[in-house]
Amino acid sequence: MNYNQTVNWLFNQLPVYQLDGVFKYKVNLEPILNTCDYLNNPQNKFRSIHVAGTNGKGSSSHMLSSILQEAGLKVGLYTSPHLLDFRERIKLNGKLVEKDFVSDFVTKNIEFFKNNKISFFEMTVAMAFDYFAKSNVDIAIIETGLGGRLDSTNILNPLVSLITNIGLDHKEFLGANLKDIAKEKAGIIKSGVPVVISEFQKETYSVFEEKAKNLNSDLFLSNSLNKFKTDLIGDFQHKNINGVVKVISLLKEFNISIDNINSGLLNVQKNTGITGRLQILKQSPFVICDVGHNLDAFKVINDHIKSLKFKNLKIVLGFVKGKDFKKIIDILPKSAHYFFCKPNIERGLSLENLADYGSACGLKYSLHNSVSDAYNSALSSSVDDDLIFIGGSNFTISEILLELN
To answer: Which of 19, 134, 299, 390 ranks highest by number of CB atoms within 10 Å?
Structure first.
């Protein structure tokens, strides 16, 4: 199979939560362990940092990669989901995995995947591990996909584990309250492996303390630092910086200087190609987008919007089913004009749901059958001093970036 055929097979032949909402939350890690054993256990052939959390884990993972790249290391980076290209999930020093590697990996192992009913996410994790091992990386940053305890990435024995913010997301899989979700995230803590907590949260910190104590793992709460800055937008990134810098301080086997940290944090976008985090798409009118899709993420987004100066606010929103869209809309400015849309996937939240709630809240809104139409309507009705925010789902951002690219 060529690359396009391979990617089509990956998405069409296996259940993919990202696309259709069908997700098998594994009761054990046996499938990924069997897959990696079949591949001669590539996860044991490179050093790693394991990152979990509700919000901030993607930004933190990219920050870590950028700093380590500035230190002259060969750095693997595994994140999910992707926005435009499947290969965004697997990077080496900021460059996407080669198309030939993706197609060759799947073609070579496809019978094993079929016979053993290996899931999409298990396959992509195994692919990343195999790629990093064969590339002889100095270290790889591995972001969990969902939760931690039962996540397919959780067969690593990392140098350090990092847990960022804990929020209410994926409650149907991880638990209905912060403590239960924290227990799932704490599942990445390994015996004798230090773990860093980016942000103190009263409701969850004791969960991490207990888990670390039981496993004889050193637990570190990151310090509040104000001397470091990043090219990623938003004051909330300071919390991510705190955790990242603490992790770097624990990597004693590498020679990482303060200059490497400074340069890495200031060049995250250039070094890693990260997109979709309060990304500026246009200056006049000012257009920004963000992949945040839960209430905690939108609280941060809303704070950032309030910090900006603008004449009129236009908000383009498209959600997927299962998200607390009502609570999100409740915290956003009532004076904005809303352009509701439905992402082009089966899981997209219907316009009827958005219209009903928009009317109940007394919002100024319009309905659009596509993300593109919503954005272009917002754009055509704006003046230079206006602000347009686009968000609600990874899929909403993906469609906008695809159109602009």
So the answer is: 390
